Amino acid sequence: MAAVWQQVLAVDDFEEDPRAQGARGHRRSVSRGSYQLQAQMNRAVYDESLVPTSVAEASRAMAGDTTLSENYAFAGMHHIFDQHVDSAVPRLQFANDDKHLLACCSLDGTLSIMTLSPPPASVKVTLKGHGGPVTDFAWSLSNDIIVSTSLDGTLRIWNTEDGRCIREVRDPESSELLCCTFQPMNNNLTVVSPIRDVFSFLYSLVGNSKHHLQVVNISTGKKVKGGSSKLTGRVLSLSFDAPGRILWAGDDRGSIFSFLFDMATGKLTKAKRLVVNEGSSICSISARSWISREARDPSLLVNACVNKLLLYRVVDNEGTLQLKRSFPIQHGSQLVHSIFCPLMSFRQGACVVTGSEDACVYFFDVERNTKAIVNKLQGHGGPVLDVSFNCDESLLASADSTGMVIIWRREQK
């Protein structure tokens, strides 16, 4: 299930830029000319000529002269959270553009919002209300709201400041809800403040246990006309491309589907299907427009219970996938997730990070043909289910099946 803030405002001269709301209460206005520029940038997602090349000296200077192995060397554990001990933590994520705020969900039916600064690290607030295990969650762009899904068949919307449940929306088919994500925002998709004014324009894509992907108006709980599709299995993972035009959905039968998403109407159009491995669960999908100066093509990172981390190339505007390479990990049954490193590096090589069923966190250089493992972190007591970097990559969080969340501190060079 993905939640999509869907308001297109008609303002005569200026619009609010949602990306300027990282500091609450501070906004800037942008002209419609900025929208035209954003539209041009969105259309150029697959244009390789716009990606920095190997002669981008200034960009390389920003990245520094360290190798990938040096850059992703970790000094040890910064902190351990154990408030969900004995219940698996399937997902965790740092807040958008934030160094010290992160959240996780648990199969004990709760979510935690944690802060790492000022020290000591602590649980800021616990989100309680779901009647079953929490399967997934997502931060809104401004970090004011979290949306969560649960096996109790509900989606809940939470205020991240005080932990209040603002709204509960039941799945139209009364089925278990397994995944969610916000649609990436550009300048003409705006979140309105205060919170109570949002819901007339809030939509979600529901990925459920009955194989359905459905766009739902969260304010009314009603389905959006033309916003539904059926996959071959239970919907386990969702990811948009950067402009929010292509949605990939993975199921527990080994298929990845791509959909064209109409941001004005919420309509879904099925485009392509790839069978990764018949009967294997597609438990994680992450999209990236480009990875590094060498890897300039749009890419999809996939965990598929085949004892490999898979990297696909996106070859067209319908989301067609072509396998680029794979990396060996221990992954046969658990819902293991992986990520692209958030900083798009202009140094030689590029890195991805994944959990694994052998209780380790692995870093791989996607451009290295041999000995691709850059680093390996050990310390968990069970399969590592999810990983997340903060915005400047100074901290990495990892969560496992025993309920432990470890914060790792990167070595300072």
What do you see in this structure?
The protein is mainly beta and 413 residues long. It contains three helices and 31 strands. The chain has one domain (2-8, 56-410): Methylamine Dehydrogenase, Chain H (7 Propeller). The longest helix has 12 residues, at 32-43. Helix content is 6%, strand content 43%.
Write down the domain tally.
1
Tell me the number of strands.
Answer: 31
* The level-1 CATH class: Mainly Beta
Distance between the termini: 40 Å
Report the mean per-residue pLDDT as an integer: 79
What is the beta-strand fraction? 35-45%
Tell me roughly what share of residues is in helical segments. under 10%
Radius of gyration: 20 Å
Regarding quaternary structure, how should these chains be classified?
single chain
InterPro entries: WD40/YVTN_repeat-like_dom_sf, WD40_repeat_CS, WD40_repeat_dom_sf, WD40_rpt, WD_repeat-ST_regulator
Organism: Seriola lalandi dorsalis
GO molecular function: promoter-specific chromatin binding
WD repeats: 127-168, 377-413
